[in-house]
Amino acid sequence: MSTNNLQSCKRKKFLHGHGRQSSSIDDLGLDILVYEILIRLPAKGVGRSKCVCKEWLSVLSTRHFAMMHCRHIYTSSNQKFIAIDSRLCSVFPLSCEDSGPLLNSRILLPFEAPWNKVNILTSFEGLLCVCFRNTGKLVIWNPLTRAFKEVSSSNSRGLYKPKSDAIGLYVDKTDDYKLLHIKRRRGRMWVHVYSSMFDSWHKITFANKLRCWRGKPIWSNGTFCKGVLYFLVNCFIENKGVMLFGFDVESERFRLKTFPRFHMLTMMEI
Prior knowledge:
Elements: H1 3-15, H2 30-37, H3 43-49, H4 54-60, H5 63-73, E1 80-83, E2 88-93, E3 105-108, E4 118-124, E5 127-132, E6 138-142, E7 147-150, E8 166-171, E9 177-185, E10 188-195, E11 200-204, E12 218-219, E13 223-225, E14 228-235, E15 241-248, E16 253-257
Antiparallel strand pairs: 1-2, 2-3, 4-5, 5-6, 6-7, 8-9, 9-10, 10-11, 12-14, 13-14, 14-15, 15-16
């Protein structure tokens, strides 16, 4: 038998099962398995896959995989919005193409709080920051896994006051998911950051003496983009219109950004 015929025969045996025992999931290579197959799973499927082995748990828990997975599923057909209308809140698909009735799924609120006292403040990569209106406590919640973490502390850090405070979720270069809380009381402002990695708060230095803080400037909640958490600030008393502040998450400093002068402006993620 010629060399070419022998090689052809070997290929046929492999394809039709004679070489099947030498083929396993390991032959695919971890990179192909993770970034061509597992990345296409829904979030719940990824969660189950973490239980397969320690290696999968390690790879699927990385910030890089989380970003790639979010980008893969972040399509118009996968967009959803959540409405808290009872203890069983509704999750609706968001579709601009389908004008028919929306089919919703229901998930149970995992925390003990009156459903009509729960406010969703902001979101980031599937995480929600919610506030209990009756207590002011802040909670970071993952609706898919139902896991949640109450971040308010006994020394009053993380107690939210509507119409006065501002919130922003972000992640730093160490894969630490953090919550920025801008707190205003009696004409003064304090800024604290909660670290999910260390389960603790620390204070950020902020210029309280700026004239534009006089009166009651209205801060939007934060929008995170490329290492900066952006806030719009309406300063009516000083007639400064709308200003854009950026919080650099690595240096942990606020900077006033150059911005067109508008008096009525809304910022949202696009």
